[in-house]
Amino acid sequence: MENVFDAKDAQNYINRINNLVEDTHGLWGRMTVDQMLAHCCITYEMVYEPEKHKKPGAIAKFILKNFVKSKVVGEKAYPRDSPTAPQFLIKERRDFDEDKKRLIGYIQKTQQLGPAAFDGKESFSFGKLSSREWNNMFAKHLNHHLSQFGV
């Protein structure tokens, strides 16, 4: 698995994103490329701009921590056509260039902050995570969707 905190690996993600164009089509799924970029930004928004999102209630957080967390922060890749949680759905078309720029900025910020900033950091949905779990979550999600769009 790539290390989102490593400058070379972070640049690899950025290079892959820069290979996308507005009319890049997905190899599976229903998202358009602009929706995919906006969708990928949500994971980072929950870290850097949490006020944009509603926190899960106690019951939802219990379910997330006990039944979903291991799938999200573990090493195993997501299968194609995995279900998307409602808060991550992007139904409207988005500004491709703006969301591409935002996603690249989030990747750069995460890499620059480094693993120490994330070790033990509270997740929006899963409680405290190790830097490795944060890395797995970010890397798996980016790899899944960039592969979905052939980059």
Structure description:
The protein is mostly helical and about 150 residues long. The protein is about 55% helix and about 5% strand. It contains five helices and two strands, in the order ααααββα. A two-stranded antiparallel ribbon has the order 1-2. Helix 1 runs antiparallel to helix 4 (about 95-115), helix 2 (about 35-50) packs parallel to helix 4 and helix 2 runs antiparallel to helix 5 (about 130-150). The two termini are about 15 Å apart.
Unreliable residue runs: none
Proportion of residues in helical segments: 40-55%
| Largest sheet, strands/sense/barrel | 2 strands, antiparallel
Distance between the termini: 16 Å
In DSSP terms (H or I, runs of 4 or more residues), the helix count works out at: 5
Report the order of strands and helices. HHHHEEH
Mean pLDDT over the full residue set: 95
Structural class: mainly alpha
Estimate the strand proportion.
under 5%
What is the number of E strands?
2
How would you describe the shape? globular
| Alpha-carbon Rg, integer | 15 Å
The side-by-side strand order for the widest beta sheet comes to: 1-2
Q: Summed up, what is this model?
A:
The chain has a two-stranded antiparallel sheet with strand order 1-2.
